[in-house]
Amino acid sequence: MTPANPYSAYRKVQAISTSDPKKLVLMLYEACLRALRKAEAAIRDGDVAAKGEGLCKAVDIITELSVSLDRNRDDEMVVFLDRLYAHLLTQLSEANLHSDAERVAHVFRWVEQLRDAWKRTVMPEAEAKAAGAARPEPSRRPAPREGYGPGEPGIGADLRRAVLGLG
């Protein structure tokens, strides 16, 4: 399928490929939620083709998030996310096999929690910037926090607490 405007498609790909890795993870969570909404609605409407498209996209996104984890780190958050992503992929497979909208809703709730936790623990500076807030002076800026993105060292205990509703 050829895009209607190739230049527009190129600009979109260019914007994504040059984005901050932390922003990319947020974009992946949001795209996954859109795909899951589409799949759930398609299951309820009996639209097999749209169900397949939505589930396939969600599986691709969750797989990308999973393979991006740095498994060389001895980090409990990496283990947690690895197991969670495997669980979500299993649920999507079962949802596809049985046309089960409730399983899709289950995955949606988890991805939504991950997205919200990511926004709270990783993206506060980016959200402030997007809202037009001024960045703090360099001398007053807190030290950078390491280990939040896939492929970066670990994810951080604060993200785990936020996902589990402990923080």
UniProtKB/TrEMBL annotation:
Q: Where exactly are the transmembrane stretches of this chain?
A: none
- State the residue spans of region: Disordered: 126-157
Q: Its Gene Ontology biological processes?
A: bacterial-type flagellum assembly; bacterial-type flagellum-dependent cell motility
Which GO CC terms are listed, alphabetically?
A: cytosol
Quote the subcellular location field of this record.
Answer: Cytoplasm, Cytosol
Q: Which UniProt keywords apply?
A: Bacterial flagellum biogenesis, Cell projection, Chaperone, Cilium, Cytoplasm, Flagellum
Work out whether the entry's keyword set contains Chaperone: yes
SUPFAM superfamilies cross-referenced by the UniProt entry: Flagellar export chaperone FliS (SSF101116)
At the top level, the lineage of the source is: Bacteria
Q: Which protein family is it in?
A: Belongs to the FliS family.
PANTHER family according to UniProt: FLAGELLAR SECRETION CHAPERONE FLIS
- Protein name, per record: Flagellar export chaperone FliS
Species, as recorded: Dissulfurirhabdus thermomarina
What gene does this protein come from? fliS
